Amino acid sequence: SASGEITIPNTYNGLPVISVFTMAFMECTNLTAINVDESNAYLSSENGVLFNKDKTLLIQYPVGKKDAAYSIPDGVTDIETSAFRGNANLTSITIPDSVRYLDTCAFGYCTSLKSVVFGDGLRTISTSAFRNCTSLEEITIPEGVTSIGEEAFYDCSGLTSVTIPNSVTSIGSGAFYDCSGLTSV
Predict the structure, then answer these.
(1) Using CA atoms, how far apart are residues 148 and 164, in angstroms rounded to an integer?
(2) Which residue from 148, 184, 149, 151 is spatially nearest to 167, judged by alpha carbons?
(3) Cβ 151 vs Cβ 127: under 8 Å
(4) Which of 7, 103, 150, 169 sits 20 to 30 Å CA-CA off 19?
């Protein structure tokens, strides 16, 4: 629509709308809100952000959403593949203790993202989770994370400091590749 918002219906051609494929709205830079018909039994939205019905999975944060800061609601356990990918407006993100898993490229190409506050429940930072987040400055990975995926922080050229806890047992190939500003690990 001209307003930059879409609404996902309860049914389409008589069939229930039960899911949205990963990256369905990728590169939709004018999309500011994804709303869901309240009668939909499988999906929901909150402030224009798309979730599964019980809000344990954050599916898509609109690429064109203008907010500079976002706190993921408590109760979310997983961040879907490319959920925040390409949003150039976010400068800070707060991840609650309930989040266990950041899927592939979850925050990839969020070029204005400077600050990430991780919750203590996080266990896995997947492949390319923060790829090309060139404005990230400092990362403290919480105790409990066991795995940092391949190219997780690839080309985070603004990153100067990373703190990795003893709980990490696996760091993937190229996890910090081309982090040219990195001076402290």
Answers:
(1) 10
(2) 148
(3) yes
(4) 150
